[in-house]
Amino acid sequence: MNIALPASGLRKAQDSVFSGLVLLGVLINFSGLLSPVLETDGTLYATIAKNMAHSGDWINLTLEGRDWLDKPHLPFWLTALSYKLFGYASFAYKLPALLCWVLGGWYTYRLARFRYSVYVAQLALLMYLAVEHLLISNVDVRAEPYLTGFCIASLYHFYRLYREKSLAHAVWGAFFAGMAVMTKGIFILIIIGSGIVIDALVRGDWKGLFHPRWWLAVALTCVFFLPELYCLYVQFDLHPEKVVFGQTGVSGLRFFFWDSQFGRFTNSGPIKGAGDPFFYLHTLLWAFLPWSVLFYYALYERFKNRKKADDWVLTGGVLFSLLLFSASKFQLPHYLNVLYPMMCILTAQVVAAAEHKRWMIAVQYGISGLLFLAGLLGIYLISISFGWVAFLLVGILAVGAIGLFPPVSITNAVRVSLLASLVMNGVYSLLLYPAIVGYQSGNRVADYVNQQGDIPEISVIPGDAANYALEFYAEKPVRYLTFPVADTAYVFLRPEKATALTAEGYDVRVLERFPHYHISELGVSFINKETRHETLDETLLVRLTR
């Protein structure tokens, strides 16, 4: 009895520390709710959802007054519903995505606990909360938080179906798979299912893949994404006269099943890129911070002990997906987001078995120190009025974290790495973005126009990405300008366009000038207040008459 009590008390203390770190991680990730929607993709998606909520048309996706064919409908439906509840605001745009990110954390924990242990599950969740690119995606919100949550949720239930043959898991796995398809496209099913297929092949149980439960899961998945097919058919396939990608006769269904996914992979679709087979190898070094070194070590351990491995679902799924992404001609860092929950579990499992490995502890404390320094550097470069207070606070947090969790175990190393990542990203989310939001000029123009009673509406020229922030935040009608302009128009445009219109005989009177920068693509020269002016463009609000 005397021995059990201290052990029980220690367990409670460890659980309390875990709960506190999880709460802090959620709060820092949710701090993105306080920052503006960032252009280009974020404001573009926010505007499409605003058009949907405002018009009441839940089938046709439109942008700039034209049909828009790129991403599936589900994120726009969820965002439009949020607008109906909370109004047209950054908070309403980001909240559904962040709730899906929470779903991803919950299922990361559940899968790690089911497959390994409570301890591994706790490590995996702490890692999930601190992954650099997930934190970035919760500030610059696009489709990734939705996809991250839906994919790991689907994998969890399909994994349970694979092991237990429960029909309930077939239904839930198919439901979340259908949601993932209606977020990104049919290609995502390969990411969800590849690990299970690889594990079955390694085990020599390929016949099990044709068990009726899997046919049921496939059929249900198709049923769950039928709404997307219906919308695409109604908007595009029923109207071959519509001009999309500069041509008529575009099939929404063909785009969904081939051009948007496999077409990008083979570079045969309307949206093209140039691939680099090593792109994701070096992208992971920063995108999966502070766990990237541990992840590469985890892969090494898995292959070194591959004959003892009793499960290839996670390892196979991650490696196959990385190879697939690397072979693609169209590559972007955020494609990796769907893999991070699996990577966290893989890394946590290896880390849990190396509690006192000194080099691992040293590496994590070294990375943590660099992240704390990055936070301090960010405060210095931002040059805010209370910067010295923030600087002192970050310094105290860094010293306090190491003092509270000394470098004696990998568990402490994970805790300190988590805190370092949260502190650095908290600096950028809570201090940097509020300080620079004014350089996303569409926001400032919207504020200006909203306060001017003599400006009934604002006009923009199609094709400028800066329009989307204005269109989202403006409380007055935003029109897309057509020429020739017969009446007086208040127009948001670039200086070179104003010059061109003047040359065409229009009277262009500048009302306001606004500094502009693409703030979702930060550079050191822009962050540094002393050199920021060198990086700025300019936009204008003009009164245009013939």
From TrEMBL:
One of its GO terms (molecular function) is pentosyltransferase activity. It holds the Pfam family PMT_2. The keyword rRNA processing does not apply. One of its GO terms (cellular component) is plasma membrane. Its main location: membrane. InterPro entries: LipidA_mod_glycosyltrf_83, RgtA/B/C-like. GO terms for biological process: lipopolysaccharide biosynthetic process; response to iron(III) ion. Residues 70-230 form the Glycosyltransferase RgtA/B/C/D-like domain. It is found in: Cell membrane. Keywords: Cell membrane, Glycosyltransferase, Membrane, Transferase, Transmembrane, Transmembrane helix. The chain crosses the membrane at residues 21-38, 85-109, 116-136, 170-202, 214-236, 278-300, 312-332, 361-382, 388-406, 418-436. It is a multi-pass membrane protein. PANTHER family: MANNOSYLTRANSFERASE YKCB-RELATED, UNDECAPRENYL PHOSPHATE-ALPHA-4-AMINO-4-DEOXY-L-ARABINOSE ARABINOSYL TRANSFERASE. This is 4-amino-4-deoxy-L-arabinose transferase. It comes from Siphonobacter aquaeclarae.
